[in-house]
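ARCHIVE CARD
CATEGORY: sequence design from structure
SOURCE FIELD: tokenized fold
FIELD CONTENT:
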């Protein structure tokens, strides 16, 4: 009899937790029609699910981003309108020479293995460390910019979802990475 009561309580508890969180999880999974980042994605600095920062980030297809000598981007979360042109300007505000502290912005397709991509990129020094062998994983990228330099690119993210961007300069992707949410 005691066992039955415990089971019943557990069932009630389960039911309560389901109804409590059901609203959010349903919203998250239907909004992007199955094009959410795959669960095989490596965890990144930005947790994409249920992150209040995403809610409060305004949609803006004009992105201005800076990068510094401490291997940091000025911002790591952007939200854009899918299917429309995005203009992005990357400026290196550092002072260190390009061959020791160059930066780029490389936007990756959903499901790309960032670690694999970045290590493959090491073989492509003359192509700004963006690996030609994995070009299908790249939505867009800027060239490497040195101190005081800027690069401007435009691109379209066709589908709603979460997209990683990184700097492919050797050793940088660990701290120089962020997300673009397309909605
Ligand atoms: Cu960098």
């Amino acid at each position: 009899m005691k066992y039955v009561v415990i089971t019943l309580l557990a069932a009630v508890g389960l039911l309560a937790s389901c109804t409590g969180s059901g609203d959010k999880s349903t919203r998250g999974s239907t909004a992007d029609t199955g094009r959410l980042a795959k669960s095989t994605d490596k965890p990144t600095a930005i947790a994409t699910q249920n992150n209040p920062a995403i809610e409060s980030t305004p949609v803006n297809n004009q992105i201005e981003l800076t990068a510094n000598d401490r291997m940091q981007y000025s911002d790591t979360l952007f939200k854009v309108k899918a299917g429309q042109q995005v203009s992005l300007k990357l400026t290196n505000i550092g002072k260190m020479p390009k061959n020791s502290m160059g930066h780029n912005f490389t936007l990756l397709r959903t499901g790309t293995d960032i670690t694999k991509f970045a290590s493959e990129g090491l073989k492509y020094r003359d192509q700004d460390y963006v690996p030609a062998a994995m070009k299908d994983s790249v939505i867009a990228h800027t060239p490497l910019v040195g101190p005081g330099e800027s690069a401007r690119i435009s691109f379209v993210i066709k589908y709603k979802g979460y997209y990683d961007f990184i700097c492919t300069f050797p050793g940088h992707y660990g701290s120089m990475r962020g997300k673009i949410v397309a909605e």
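CARD ANNOTATION: Residues 1-31 form one domain. The helical segments are 2-31, 52-56, 98-101, 114-121.
SHELF: design records, drawer C
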